[in-house]
């Protein structure tokens, strides 16, 4: 299990969401990249130095510091999208190899390289910027149906990461709530929502959403 590439966003116009810019255009970078806790959502800060988000209401902050997507899943999408998908094509900060990103448990921790420890917090929920970036009508629903969302991660221990760093799973919590299951519960399979509450590492706003929807 390893990091194939570390990807940093280049600001681009965002005509799809009515914002001035988007950082979804992620490109691989050479050399080490500093990773640190960006603090609370609302500033545009994320975990990787040199990167940021522009939709500060929905992205960035402690619970969405780093976004990971598996190279194997990108490869699986290529025939359907009829294009080659470079590392970073889905806006991910880390393109991984040999790591079951969607099968990771909420609260699972990964050591990347010698220093960095990240914790799986929640799945990525697709938005109109993602659909517009790919230029694929109906992409939000297709991505949702596939339930291969990739994972957002918190920074537990800061440091530097680079392409080629090994990934080691150093902690797995005692529950069965995976990234894929959480995504399905939050999108198309609401009957799964009660199962999410055993995942202590789920973001507070996600827990509140679950409680609100299950008590209605």
Proportion of strand residues: 25-35%
Number of helices: 5
Query: Structural class, please?
Result: alpha+beta
Shape: globular
Please summarize the sheet with the most strands. 8 strands, mixed
Average pLDDT value? 95
Number of strands: 12
Range of helix content: 10-25%
Contiguous uncertain segments of 5+ residues: none
The H/E string reads EEEEEEHEEEHHEEEHH
Compute the CA-based radius of gyration: 16 Å
Strand numbers in spatial order across the main sheet: 4-1-7-6-10-9-8-12
From the N-terminal CA to the C-terminal CA, the straight-line distance is 42 Å
Present the secondary structure layout.
Layout: E1 2-9, E2 12-14, E3 19-22, E4 26-28, E5 33-35, E6 66-70, H1 71-81, E7 94-97, E8 109-112, E9 116-123, H2 128-134, H3 139-146, E10 151-157, E11 159-161, E12 167-171, H4 179-186, H5 204-215
Parallel strand pairs: 6-7
Antiparallel strand pairs: 1-4, 1-7, 2-3, 5-11, 6-10, 8-9, 8-12, 9-10
Describe what this molecule looks like in 3D:
An eight-stranded mixed β-sheet has the order 4-1-7-6-10-9-8-12. Strands 2-3 form a two-stranded antiparallel sheet. The chain has a two-stranded antiparallel sheet with strand order 5-11. The radius of gyration is 16 Å and the shape is globular. 21% of the residues lie in helices and 26% in strands. It starts with a strand and ends with a helix. It is built from five helices and twelve strands. The chain has 216 residues and is an alpha+beta fold. The chain has helices at residues 71-81, 128-134, 139-146, 179-186, 204-215; strands at 2-9, 12-14, 19-22, 26-28, 33-35, 66-70, 94-97, 109-112, 116-123, 151-157, 159-161, 167-171. Strand 8 (109-112) and strand 9 form a beta hairpin.
């Amino acid at each position: 299990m390893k990091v194939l590439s570390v990807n940093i966003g280049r600001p681009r116009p965002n005509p799809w969401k009515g914002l001035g810019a988007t950082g979804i255009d992620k490109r691989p970078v050479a050399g080490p990249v500093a990773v640190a806790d960006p603090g609370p959502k609302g500033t545009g800060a994320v975990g990787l130095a040199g990167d940021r988000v522009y939709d500060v209401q929905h992205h960035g902050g402690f619970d969405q510091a780093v976004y990971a997507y598996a190279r194997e899943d990108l490869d699986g999408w290529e025939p359907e999208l009829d294009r080659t998908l470079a590392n970073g094509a889905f806006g991910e900060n880390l393109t991984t190899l040999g790591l079951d990103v969607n099968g990771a448990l909420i609260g699972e921790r990964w050591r990347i390289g010698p220093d960095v420890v990240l914790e799986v917090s929640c799945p990525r929920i697709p938005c109109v910027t993602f659909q517009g970036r790919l230029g694929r009508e109906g992409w939000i629903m297709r991505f949702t149906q596939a339930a291969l969302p990739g994972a957002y991660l918190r920074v537990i221990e800061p440091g530097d990461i680079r392409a080629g760093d090994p990934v080691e799973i150093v902690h797995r919590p005692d529950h069965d709530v995976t990234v894929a299951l959480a995504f399905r519960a939050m999108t198309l399979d609401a009957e799964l929502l009660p199962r999410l509450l055993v995942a202590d590492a789920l973001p507070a706003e996600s827990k509140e959403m679950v409680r609100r929807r299950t008590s209605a």
